[in-house]
TrEMBL record:
Belongs to the ABC transporter superfamily. Residues 21-282 form the ABC transporter domain. This is ABC transporter ATP-binding protein. The keyword NADP does not apply. It comes from Salinicola acroporae.
């Protein structure tokens, strides 16, 4: 395969600029918890006991260009958070590569990661858990500013924290209060301010609004989107909520059992999802009910990604599966610029 071919397989043209993030063949397996599941399985073919593992992320390829807001969407347990933790260096991959701004970062030690920590920030689902309960809001914001700008005088650090509080909509009169004195939405605002305090360029947000009241979710998403415009941020946002995706995403990656089955611009995916799983996932969307792709009902339930089956991981639930799907894992193919899909039926023109 020539370099140009391999770029085509990744779903982008050969002259695209270096992506801010590039992930290639990324995999993470976890040992099974021995108290909950038997970690060994008797393999009839080799007549030997084999250790079973959870294939949480299984050969993921992904690119994020500067300015993208990429949403990773998929059912619970499909590996979204594991992928986020691999990308941000909180987990080490079993195989594969993570390149940040052209530099390989997956093998770095904690101290080698330090320069990237400022550029790449993470926001979690539970803002209470990510805020130190012993710090006031002001202390929580001034701490990272001081850490990254050791030479700044106190007044400048204070002004910078004040500006952040104003930006995220926290009343300055509340700056001496502790995290537990705020509502969930306000806590998430503080967590966002803390992430922004070091002037990052890339933010990975793992379900940042799913723990919040519906009435507050849009406010927090709008805050993140405003910050994107004002600070020229790039986002990877994880969610299982398609309303969040529609509101937020410029690009969407659909994940199933540790793999990415479809990657496309948000408009393209919502207008015409091609992968059977994307179709099923989006079937509840009003736009799809109006139109193009027929809604697809899934058989069965998603399984744990323990020793995934041969061939396509979706085949047990897919109405288009055939014998090739049983044998051969579908590789990502480029459908059009920026649109990539891993499905034999699409490749063969069956759907
Ligand atoms: N530290 C761990 N040890 C063992 N198994 C793990 C660990 N972390 C995740 N897993 C397993 O890996 C799989 C993927 O988990 P992950 O948390 O990445 O999924 P997710 O898509 O984020 O799910 P959710 O939407 O529920 O947050 C799951 O089967 C999970 O049980
Ligand atoms: S590869 Fe086969 S089983 Fe997998 S989604 Fe496509 S048609 Fe269905
Ligand atoms: Mg998760």
């Amino acid at each position: 395969m020539t370099p140009a071919d391999s770029l085509q397989t990744l779903g982008r043209a050969a002259d695209t600029p270096t992506p801010l993030l590039r992930v290639q063949g990324l995999s993470k397996r976890f040992a099974l918890h021995p108290e909950r599941l038997l970690p060994w399985r008797f393999d009839k073919r080799s007549r030997a006991w084999r250790r079973q593992r959870i294939h949480a992320v299984n050969g993921v390829d992904l690119e994020i260009q500067r300015g993208d807001a990429l949403c990773v969407v998929g059912e619970s347990g499909c590996g979204k958070s594991t992928l986020a933790r691999l990308i941000t260096g909180l987990l080490t991959p079993c195989s594969g590569e993570v390149h940040y701004d052209g530099q390989r970062v997956d093998h770095l030690t904690a101290s080698q990661w330090r320069p990237y920590r400022r550029r790449l920030q993470m926001i979690f689902q539970n803002p209470f858990a990510s805020l130190n309960p012993r710090l006031t809001v002001r202390q929580a914001l001034e701490e990272p500013i001081r850490l990254h700008h050791g030479d700044w005088p106190r007044a400048r650090v204070r002004d910078s924290a004040d500006a952040l509080m104003t930006d995220v909509g926290i009343d300055l009169g509340w700056s001496e209060r502790f995290a537990h004195e705020f509502s969930g939405g306000q806590r998430q605002r503080i967590a966002i301010a803390r992430a922004l305090s070091v002037d990052p360029e890339f933010i990975v947000a793992d379900e940042p609004v799913s723990a919040l009241d519906v009435s507050v979710q849009a406010q927090i998403l709008n805050l993140l989107m405003d910050a994107q415009v004002e600070r020229r941020l790039t986002y990877l946002l994880i969610t299982h909520d398609l309303a969040v995706v529609e509101h937020f995403a410029t690009r969407v990656a659909v994940m199933y059992l540790g793999t990415i089955c479809e990657l496309a611009d948000a408009d393209t995916l919502f207008a015409n999802p091609r992968h059977p799983y994307s179709r099923a996932l989006l079937a509840a969307s009003p736009r799809l009910q109006d139109g193009h792709a027929p809604p697809l009902r899934l058989n069965g339930e998603t399984s744990m990604p323990i020793e995934p089956p041969s061939g396509c991981v979706f085949r047990a639930r897919c109405p288009h599966a055939n014998s090739r799907c049983q044998r051969e894992r579908p590789l990502p193919q480029r459908l059009s610029e920026g649109h990539r899909i891993a499905c034999h039926a699409v490749e063969e023109g069956r759907i």
